[in-house]
Amino acid sequence: MASPQMAQRRSPPPQQSERIELTNAPRFAPRLQTQRISNTGMTLPMSKRIVLSSDHAAIALRQTIAEHIAAKGWEVVDLGPTTPESTHYPERGAEAAERVASGDCALGIVLCGTGQGIMMAANKVKGIRCGVCHDTFSARMIRQHNDAQMLAMGARVIGEGLALDIVDAFLDAAFEGGRHGTRVDMIKALEA
Ligand code: RB5
User: With a 6 A CB cut-off, is 112 part of the ligand 1 pocket?
Assistant: First the structure.
């Protein structure tokens, strides 16, 4: 019978090159598998836990997005609200951003009437990079070039179909690192 040491020798750890290959998967890879760390070339497995939040202006769209993302295999942390009373987007955006900044969730999607107010609030949380996107190109690029962890959209600006396409573009893209890592590090230095 093989000793534990021999068994270990037969199962070498995964090579780093295998993991980098996942990061370099085609633009529309169905799942985001790894996250490149800064411009070092290192990659880490990325959790599939995502936080959603909105103010009263975007409840229905948020719930539609939650269902869509869950069907794609993500664990959704939906912070609400579920009832239509007026609520404050700065609180909603900050609460979601804290979940991402703390590492509890890998990514976040926040919604309000325009997407602008809740994006501004999310970006006040240290370490968060959140962009408003109302087109799929921008949604893909804020992941690939800016390593944004959060996407903001306005429920009074776009319809459900486009919003879901934007969500897909955001989730299916991966940070490219390299020169973009240098620039993201420069953004981080502004917060230090
Ligand atoms: C709420 O009426 C509205 O101001 C808010 O949803 C958002 O558009 C702010 O940026």
Answer: yes
Structure tokens at 109: 């999607």
Which tens digit of pLDDT belongs to each residue from 171-184?
A: 999 999 999 999 99
Q: Would you say 34 and 21 are in contact if contact means Cβ atoms under 8 Å apart? A: no
pLDDT digits (tens, 9 = 90+) for 31-56: 344 454 444 455 556 799 999 999 99
Question: What is the model's pTM?
Answer: 0.80
Give the residue numbers marked as catalytic: 112, 145
| Cβ-Cβ contacts under 8 Å for 192 (sequence gap 6 or more) | none
Please tell me if the CB atom of residue 114 comes closer than 6 angstroms to any atom of ligand 1: yes
Rounded to the nearest 10°, the torsion over CA 10, 12, 18, 23 is: 130
